Amino acid sequence: MTGADSCSNTPQTLHSPRQQSGFSNMGPRLHVALCGADGGCRYERLLDGNPVWISSTGGSGGLKRGAGRAAAASERVSPEEMDQEYERRLLRQINHQNLPTEARLSKCVSATCSPVSVKSGDRFIPTRAGSNWSINFHYANENCRSPNQNHKAKDASSDSSKDAVAYAALLRNELLGAGIETVPDPHTDDRRHAVLSQDSHSLFRYTVHTKRVPFDSDNEVSPYSLSPLSNKSHKLLRSPRKPARKISKIPFKVLDAPELQDDFYLNLVDWSAGNLLSVGLGACVYLWSACTSQVTRLCDLSVDGDSVTSVCWNERGSLVAVGTHKGYVQIWDAAGGRKLTSLEGHSARVGALAWNGEQLSSGSRDRVILQRDVRTPPTAERRLQGHRQEVCGLKWSPDHQHLASGGNDNKLLVWNSSSLLPVQQYSDHLAAVKAIAWSPHQHGLLASGGGTADRCLRFWNTLTGQALQSTDTGSQVCNLAWSKHANELVSTHGYSQNQILVWKYPSLTQVAKLTGHSYRVLYLAVSPDGEAIVTGAGDETLRFWNVFSKTRCTKESKSVLNLFTRIR
Question: Where is the composition biased (Polar residues) (predicted)?
Answer without folding.
Answer: 1-24
